[in-house]
Specification:
The chain is of the alpha+beta class. The strands form 6 sheets. A 5-stranded antiparallel beta sheet has the order 4-5-6-8-7, with helices on one face. Strands 1-11-12 form a 3-stranded antiparallel beta sheet, with no helix packed on it. Helices cover about 30% and strands about 15% of the residues. The protein has 2 domains: about 90 residues, 2-Layer Sandwich (Phosphorylase Kinase, domain 1); about 240 residues, Transferase(Phosphotransferase), domain 1 (Orthogonal Bundle), CATH 1.10.510.10. Bound molecules: adenosine-5'-triphosphate. Adenosine-5'-triphosphate (ATP) binds next to strand 4, strand 5, strand 6 and strand 8. Adenosine-5'-triphosphate binds next to strand 4, strand 5, strand 6 and strand 8. Its EC number is 2.7.12.1. It catalyses: L-seryl-[protein] + ATP = O-phospho-L-seryl-[protein] + ADP + H(+); L-tyrosyl-[protein] + ATP = O-phospho-L-tyrosyl-[protein] + ADP + H(+); L-threonyl-[protein] + ATP = O-phospho-L-threonyl-[protein] + ADP + H(+).
Length: about 425
């Protein structure tokens, strides 16, 4: 088959992206906190300790010693109303990093593609909002990243932190530059599913990352396609014979496939340590486990649930549970996976007990609208959904997903168990 090779900067279409699906719990109204400068002799300076703290001082020193105007920081500007750093493309973030483009925006801040003058490579810098709770969360993320870096010797699973510093009251975390997220890729492909052999490779790496984190007693809590990035932006375009052209003149439709299946997980800003108290709500809605919604307390298994939802999405092209409401979400789970166990419903906390009547989910009686009931009825059973999209390995994949998406967290597969499942074990790497 003839293949065209393409490469492009991964995020040059960022402006047209739909709003990123937000994580939970962070977007409470906040009094705007005016940015303060990290001042060193009247200039901005990284004032945090970093892996290369001397590097930060060297940055600043070069500002004075070399006196190169083009290497200086831009004039002081106020942050925007949400505490985001305000910048212009082409200017310096610090004397070491030149801003090329904005590649992403999340709850915590903006991610900028920057040229690192010292290492002579592009890096991705997360410039965190100058608001106390985000600054504190960024410090947690830095600690987690340092731990992961220490144990993930060859840096194959999690994004690698290169450096960090505090710039004009914004914590800046410097990462290796990665490619587009799985979500970006699906979207650019008009939400066409990935082939099952690619899903296998992506799933294997995702679960290896989860197993690695869980071995370190860390729980990611926000696994989603937006937080899984291809290492390389390169892709090939191949004809997609499954899609019928809209008119005879339109010719064959094409779909993209990544040239390499290598991925890494990002965004450790919500990572929890095992010994913490786990009662608060975690995860982005579509990937949230039933025990989280029911307020039963959560642990490692919430990552496994998210991984199950992600694998289904990669096979089908679309998020499995597209909802914004708890009862509808639980009803969707029952529709796809069968009834929720009574022992879980009985233990629902005071927020979730209203979703339960006589030991069962209060559905469809508790539905807020007919559309909601229709949205639930539209969903197929897991087996059918997988068989609609997967041409081979469907039986193994269904069995794996049933293990990852078990309602009761105590009987859900662990990441290590999942990696030993025949879906992974009995197949050689093809991508
Ligand atoms: N190392 C990287 N290389 C390339 N792009 C990146 C990198 N890190 C982050 N991005 C891009 O920036 C976006 C936001 O990053 P990230 O998820 O870390 O921010 P966040 O504020 O914590 O987001 P969230 O709202 O999910 O918490 C990502 O979805 C991705 O598109």
């Amino acid at each position: 088959m003839e293949m065209d090779y393409f490469t492009e900067f991964p995020h040059n279409y960022m402006d047209r992206r739909p709003r990123k699906r937000p994580r939970v719990g962070w977007e409470m109204p906040q009094a705007h906190q005016k940015a303060q400068s990290g001042i060193f002799g009247g200039q901005d300076v990284g004032n945090g300790t970093s892996f290369q703290s001397s590097r930060v001082l060297t940055d600043n020193a070069s500002l004075y010693v070399k006196g190169l105007a083009q290497k200086g920081s831009p004039p002081w500007r106020d942050d925007d109303k949400d505490g985001h750093y305000v910048f212009a493309l082409g200017e310096n973030l610090t004397s070491r990093y030149k801003i090329h483009r904005k590649i992403g925006e999340g709850t915590f801040g903006q991610v900028l593609e920057c040229w690192d003058r010292d290492t002579r490579e592009m890096v991705a810098i997360k410039v965190v909002r100058s608001i106390k709770k985000y600054r504190e969360a960024a410090m947690v993320e830095i600690n987690v990243l340092q731990l992961l870096r220490k144990y993930d010797g060859n840096g194959s699973r999690c994004v690698q932190i290169r450096n960090w510093f505090d710039h004009r009251n914004h914590i800046c975390i410097v990462f290796e530059m990665l490619g587009p997220s799985l979500y970006d890729f699906l979207r650019k492909n008009n939400y066409r599913p990935f082939p099952v052999d690619l899903v296998r490779e992506l799933g294997r790496q995702l679960l290896e990352c989860v197993a690695f984190m869980h071995d370190l007693r860390l729980i990611h809590t926000d696994l989603k396609p937006e937080n899984i990035l291809f290492v390389s932006p390169e892709y090939v375009k191949i004809p997609d014979y499954k899609v019928t052209p809209r008119s005879p003149t339109e010719g064959v439709c094409y779909k993209r496939l990544p040239k390499s299946s290598a991925i890494k997980v990002i965004d450790f800003g919500s990572t929890a340590y095992e010994e913490q108290d786990h009662n608060y709500i975690v995860s982005t809605r579509h990937y949230r486990a039933p025990e989280v919604i029911l307020g039963l307390g959560w642990s490692y298994q919430c990552d496994i649930w998210s991984a199950g939802c992600i694998l289904v999405e990669l096979c089908s092209g679309e998020a499995l549970f597209q909802t914004h409401e708890n009862l509808e979400h639980l009803a969707m789970m029952e529709r796809v996976l069968g009834p929720l166990p009574q022992h879980m419903l009985k233990r629902a906390d005071r927020h979730a007990e209203k979703y339960v009547r006589r030991g069962r989910l209060d559905w469809p009686d508790g539905a807020t609208s007919r559309e909601s009931i229709r949205a639930v009825l539209k969903l197929p059973r897991l087996q059918n959904l997988v068989m609609q999209h997967v041409d081979h390995s469907a039986g193994e994949l269904i069995d794996l997903l049933q293990g990852l998406l078990r309602f009761d967290p105590s009987s859900r597969l662990t990441a290590h168990e999942a990696l030993r499942h025949p879906f992974f074990r009995d197949h050689y790497r093809r991508y």
